[in-house]
Amino acid sequence: MIGQKKKKGPGKAIAVVLILLVLLVGGLFFLSGQAGEVPMETIEEEVSLGDGEA
Fold first, then answer.
1. Sign of torsion, CA 5 6 7 12?
2. Most buried of 16, 35, 42, 43 (most Cβ within 10 A)?
3. Nearest-angstrom CA–CA distance, 28 and 19
4. How far apart are CA 7 and CA 25, in angstroms?
């Protein structure tokens, strides 16, 4: 009839939620792969003790 809208089934809402969930999980895996650990380097410098002058 005129002016009546079709009722959307729950299938479309479930599909949208599943797509969003897959995108979220995929994004998390992508971002976790980007963060690499930086290897620790020791920095050695000569330290002069000075003449005792302040």
1. negative
2. 16
3. 14
4. 31
Calculate what percentage of the chain has a pLDDT beyond 70: 74
How many whole angstroms separate alpha carbon 20 and alpha carbon 26? 10
| C-alpha distance from residue 33 to each of 20, 24, 27, 29, 37 (Å) | 20, 14, 10, 6, 10
pLDDT-derived band at 8, boundaries 50, 70, 90: low
SS3 11: helix
CA 48 to chain centre: 45
Residues found in the chain: 54
DSSP string across 8-40: PPHHHHHHHHHHHHHHHHHHHHHHHHH-PPPPP
Residue given tokens 């290897």 in the structure block: 39
